[in-house]
């Protein structure tokens, strides 16, 4: 569990969102063209099971997409008590122990805050 990467959760969440959307459209198309009720006590158990499956598949996939979004937000906001991290997050423990041991000075932290990418004058090649 300590080697889990949030990128794979993001991929899983995107695929759940795409597939869930397509399955929801498929379900709505099926429901609109249905000559009977979606669930019926007069229908066979197989018909009701098929209807339940058509309802639950997009629902579960879209819930998976939302879950992946919350996991991503938890990871990017630095919340170490996320659903997937818990007490197994060895990297965060190691970072915390190193920063407590070596610490950071105020000049180091102020230099980090003033850094700007691509802020230099640059150099031209061949001239």
How is this structure best described in words?
There is one protein chain. By secondary structure, the protein is mostly helical. The protein has 4 helices and no strands. Helix 1 (6-32) runs antiparallel to helix 2.
Per DSSP, the total helix count is: 4
What is the average of the pLDDT values?
78
**Main β-sheet description:** none
Structural class: mainly alpha
Instruction: Give a count of the beta strands, DSSP E runs of length 2 or more.
Output: 0
Output the radius of gyration: 25 Å
Could you spell the SSE succession in H and E letters? HHHH
Shape: elongated
Strand content: under 5%
Low-confidence stretches: none
DSSP helix fraction: 55-70%
User: How far apart are the termini?
Assistant: 54 Å
Write the layout of secondary structure elements.
Layout: H1 6-32, H2 45-76, H3 90-102, H4 106-114
Helix pairs in contact: 1-2
Write out key terms for the chains shown.
127 residues, mainly alpha, 4 helices, elongated
Quick summary:
With 127 residues, the protein is mainly alpha-helical. The chain has helices at 6-32, 45-76, 90-102, 106-114.
């Amino acid at each position: 569990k300590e080697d889990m990467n949030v990128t794979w959760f993001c991929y899983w969440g995107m695929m759940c969102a795409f597939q869930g959307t397509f399955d929801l459209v498929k379900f709505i198309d099926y429901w609109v063209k249905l000559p009977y009720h979606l669930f019926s006590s007069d229908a066979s158990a197989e018909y009701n099971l098929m209807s339940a499956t058509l309802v639950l598949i997009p629902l579960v996939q879209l819930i998976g997409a939302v879950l992946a979004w919350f996991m991503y937000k938890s990871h990017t906001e630095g919340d170490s008590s996320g659903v997937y991290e818990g007490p197994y997050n060895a990297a965060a423990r190691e970072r915390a122990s190193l920063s407590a041991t070596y610490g950071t000075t105020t000049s180091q932290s102020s230099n980090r805050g003033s850094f700007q990418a691509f802020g230099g004058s640059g150099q031209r090649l061949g001239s």
